[in-house]
Specification:
270 residues; TIM Barrel; four-stranded parallel beta sheet; three-stranded parallel beta sheet; 10 helices; 7 strands; 48% helix; globular
Length: 270
């Protein structure tokens, strides 16, 4: 009986600590800066992203799914990273539009997850930016409006995919300079992920530059005020942040966004 009691308390403690670790807000690094140092010294963890070229090479077709060779290559990258989380970045299959098209896309996304797990991936898997469907204007509309409800219906249509992923990775990049509009958009996206996934983790993608779709602002770095708002909003509503960006750019340890991130880490006691 004594040993049973000890085992019982060990079980309780293990459950407690696992719950505690899940509740911990974590910042992940997925940036592509050249000559970037190891950011783990700043309490920023590396997170692997498996991009489309791993799955498809140069094939641009929207009608195929990755073959077994490509899936195995992805699994090796996942295993080699040593990370318990992984992001699959496949953006070619439409999740908006005709019902049949969406259902076909969902089936493809589900198949990739299924095969990735079958071939040995042990990490928690999710897709970059979906679900939910990314939509700025409908997300910031009134929750009782037809626009907002239509957006939710689109998300309901991809619920089978939401059921399959282990973690949600909504993309909350800045399209416009309207900071309060961005905050409303971010909260709505996170809220939809919570609605679809219930207790599954929601870790959001942030980019300290404006999205390329904005012809005037694209590539410009956000103000430190705007960037801090994004970090604070993520801290309040999500379970973690993935920082992306830096393609073909040199790492700058004195960049305002990075100094603001360090300040956020210190003040948030991460």
């Amino acid at each position: 009986m004594r040993f049973l009691k000890i085992e019982y308390y060990v079980l309780i403690l293990s459950v407690f600590y696992s719950i505690e670790s899940l509740a911990e807000f974590i910042i992940y690094d997925a940036t592509l800066y050249k000559n970037k140092p190891d950011l783990s010294a700043y309490k920023v963890k590396q997170l692997p992203i498996i991009y489309e070229n791993t799955f498809f090479g140069k094939n641009k077709s929207k009608h195929i799914i990755p073959n077994d060779f490509s899936i195995r290559k992805a699994v090796k990258l996942i295993e080699g990273s040593g990370s318990n989380l992984v992001v699959l970045d496949i953006e070619r299959w439409e999740l908006k539009g005709r019902r049949g098209l969406v259902a076909d896309s969902v089936a493809k996304y589900k198949k990739v997850i299924e095969k990735t797990r079958q071939m040995g991936a042990k990490s928690s898997i999710g897709y970059y930016g979906l679900p939910p469907v990314r939509d700025y204007w409908r997300a910031i509309s009134n929750k009782e409006s037809d626009e907002y409800r239509d957006w939710q219906k689109e998300n309901d249509a991809i619920k089978p995919l939401a059921n399959d992923v282990d973690v949600f990775y909504p993309s909350l990049y800045a399209f416009y300079s309207d900071q309060q509009g961005w905050k409303k958009y971010a909260i709505a996206q996170i809220s939809e992920a919570r609605r679809l996934g219930k207790d599954k983790p929601v870790i959001v993608f942030l980019w300290p530059q404006y999205h390329n779709s904005n012809k005037i602002l694209r590539g410009q770095y956000l103000s430190t005020k705007f960037w801090r708002l994004q970090l604070d909003t993520a801290k309040q509503y999500a379970d973690g942040v993935i920082i992306w960006g830096g393609w073909k750019q040199e790492w700058d340890k004195d960049a305002p966004w990075w100094l603001s991130t360090l300040k956020f880490i210190k003040e948030s006691e991460i």
